Amino acid sequence: MTALPLTDDQLAAMSRMTGLEFLQFAFTLPRDQRPAVIGDLFGMQVLSLEEGKVSFSIQSLPTAANPLGTLHGGACATLLDSVMGCAVHTMLGPGVGYGTLELKVNYIRTVPVDGRTLTGTGSIIHVGRSTATAEGKVLDPDGKLVAHGTTTCMIYS
Length: 157
What we know:
Layout: H1 8-15, H2 19-26, H3 38-41, E1 45-50, E2 53-59, H4 73-89, E3 97-107, E4 117-127, E5 131-139, E6 145-156
Antiparallel strand pairs: 1-2, 2-4, 3-6, 4-5, 5-6
């Protein structure tokens, strides 16, 4: 793992942040001050971060096409995994982590790779001591449902 170019004070402050505070901080860091994350590969943008609910967007670009010339399902799966996982993260206390145990995605319609913006929103269903569940939706610019899913995450104390 590449060392983060953060100061000791920033690292100490991060260890005391709740999940929501950590995400709010991490997403404000300039790209050259943080390690690469999967969202960078898809050009993911943070639209909103609040306790129990997050929204991100991606563009449907030709670089994410499947052999049929439409958006690969993995793009929506990645968007859903990101928003649902981050929704879980917003509910966690300082020093508590999580990981995806299960991801279920339902694809509703194909998406052209013409640069349209897809918006993913993840919301908490339940947060327990050792697991959490969340649900998510991906909408196209017309508000049509493209995909939806659920996740179960393991909570690491």
